[in-house]
From TrEMBL:
UniProt xrefs under InterPro entries: Cys-tRNA-ligase (IPR015803), Cys-tRNA-synt_Ia_DALR (IPR015273), Cys-tRNA/MSH_ligase (IPR024909), CysS_C (IPR056411), Rossmann-like_a/b/a_fold (IPR014729), tRNA-synt_1_cat_dom (IPR032678), tRNAsynth_Ia_anticodon-bd (IPR009080)
Name recorded for this polypeptide: Cysteine--tRNA ligase
Stated family: Belongs to the class-I aminoacyl-tRNA synthetase family.
Domain Cysteinyl-tRNA synthetase class Ia DALR: 345-406
Species assigned in the record: Corynebacterium intestinale
Sequence motif 'KMSKS' region, residues: 274-278
PANTHER family named in the record: CYSTEINE--TRNA LIGASE, CYSTEINYL-TRNA SYNTHETASE
UniProt-annotated location(s): Cytoplasm
Keyword set, alphabetical order: Aminoacyl-tRNA synthetase, ATP-binding, Cytoplasm, Ligase, Metal-binding, Nucleotide-binding, Protein biosynthesis, Zinc
GO molecular function: cysteine-tRNA ligase activity
This enzyme's EC code(s): 6.1.1.16
NCBIfam families: cysS
């Protein structure tokens, strides 16, 4: 029996996982800032840490996973304004798209999914603690607005401070990526709370009206649900600095122990380029699902080690889909086979910092052994191996016999029956048209349209589809 070791970004080493509370695992994952259609770069962290969660669950942990929604930020306000829509409608629309994408890919729903705007009270409390401790200061703005900044120099001068340790940056080199604001004592200071500009949404605080700074929300939400000390903080590699560095600074400065392990997933790239807006359109979830089934996309996104770059190509995607189908074909030969026991090699792989490529290799080895046993007429052994494949595939979130994925490869009986009936109608229409009986042809088309069926005439004859 091996035990789970995870690569902790903060110490740059693999550390054995020792939870704060035995038998419990508390995880905070920085979620989406929904302002456009989700693409595979967005969904990779959801899938990667869903695998971590499923592995902890499989080992009997009671797992709490908090994944936030950043429902207010500059980009959301800008895009909503450009499109002449209320910001709250804009963000809610794309939040639903993200939820749909997570569900489509079989990412287990988080234990709770808090929104930044619902946590203003907790943020005010956090800022008060930081101001009282001498690590934050308020800067009044115009018309009753006000900002609050974190004082990096004050924190840095304190014994036990560790600013820059997570990302390995020197304090003097750090650029917060924030526009220079009036009243900020140093360029390294970052906004906990942003003064409201005219026309912007705002909430009242003792230091003036404004809106949440991005970093503060995650400290407020994680500690509200998981406590001042919790197990694992996860997110994309690009969040290491400034976001996670600043979360650590404000939480440690406020006296919280905060996260014990930091895990970061790497990017999705295409032709070596990090996901940009234009790539995001090409690699939207909707576009990917034109090429492969949801379960195959899930398999693909989880297949690389979470700390490696996932270099997208359509060839790699379809190759992954073929890999999944070999597993599906094998398990499909054993209707109703129960989940069995995973192999020792699989367990070692998962405990080795969630080494999915090794775990996948073990699943495929087991599939080959199962097919061989079947070829030799040893159905009992083959069935045992199918049970092992099922349980291992379930840990990675793509058990072919899971309710969500079952039948996803074939038409259901109802689909097949509908196809027979619609084709009969289309034949009637074709015959009527050949006889120039337009009334009958139109009646058929109208009846199908009323039933939500769209006909498209092609060179090979009419085809049908369900209208959206
Ligand atoms: Zn965050």
């Amino acid at each position: 029996m091996s035990t789970l070791r995870i690569f902790d970004t903060a110490t740059r080493s693999q550390r054995e996982f020792e939870p704060v509370r035995p038998g419990h695992a508390s995880i905070y994952l920085c979620g989406a800032t929904p302002q456009s259609q989700p693409h595979i770069g967005h969904l990779r962290s959801g899938v990667a840490f869903d695998i971590l969660r499923r592995w902890l669950l499989a080992q009997g942990y009671d797992v709490a996973l908090v994944r936030n929604v950043t429902d207010i930020d500059d980009k959301i306000l800008t895009k909503a304004a450009e499109n002449n829509r209320p910001w709250w409608e804009w963000v809610s629309t794309y939040e639903r798209e993200f939820t749909k994408a997570y569900n489509t890919l079989g990412v287990l729903p988080p234990s709770v999914e808090p929104r930044a705007t619902g946590f203003v009270t907790q943020m005010v409390e956090y800022m008060q603690r930081l101001i009282d401790a001498g690590f934050a200061y308020a800067v009044p703005g115009e018309d009753g607005a006000g900002s609050v900044y974190f004082d990096v120099a004050a924190w840095n001068a304190t014994e036990g401070s560790d600013y820059g340790a997570l990302s390995g940056n020197r304090v003097e080199d750090m650029e917060q990526g924030e526009s220079d604001a009036v009243g900020k004592r140093s360029p390294q200071d970052f906004a906990l709370w942003k003064a409201a500009k005219p026309g912007e949404p705002s909430w009242p605080t003792p230091w003036g009206k404004g809106r949440p700074g991005w970093h503060l929300e995650c400290s407020a939400m994680s500690t509200y649900y998981l406590g001042g000390e919790f197990d694992i903080h996860c997110g994309g590699l690009d969040l290491q600095f400034p976001h996670h560095e600043n979360e650590i600074a404000q939480s440690h400065a406020a006296g919280d122990k905060f996260a014990n392990y930091w895990m970061h997933n790497h990017w999705v790239t295409m032709a070596g380029e990090k996901m940009s807006k234009s790539l995001g359109n090409v690699l939207s979830i909707a576009n990917m699902l034109e090429i492969v089934r949801p379960v195959e996309l899930r398999y693909y996104l989880g297949s690389a080690h979470y700390r490696s770059v996932l270099e997208y190509s359509e060839a790699a995607l379809t190759e992954a889909a073929a890999g999944y189908r070999r597993i599906e074909d094998f398990v499909g030969k054993f209707e109703g086979v129960e989940k069995g026991q995973w192999t020792a090699a699989f367990e070692d792989a998962m405990n080795d910092d969630i080494a999915v490529p090794k775990a996948l290799a073990e699943i495929h080895t087991t599939v080959r052994a199962g097919n061989k046993a079947l070829g030799e007429g040893n159905r009992e052994e083959a069935e045992r191996l199918a049970g092992a494949v099922r349980v291992m595939a379930a840990v990675l979130g793509f058990d072919p016999l899971d309710e969500q994925w079952k039948d996803s490869g074939e038409e259901s009986g109802a689909d097949a029956a509908l196809d027979v009936l619609v084709r009969a109608e289309l034949e009637r229409r074709t015959t009527a048209r050949a006889e120039k009986d337009w009334a009958t042809a139109d009646a058929v088309r109208d009846r199908l349209a009323a039933a939500g069926i769209t006909i498209t005439d092609t060179a090979d004859g009419p085809t049908w589809s369900l209208a959206d």
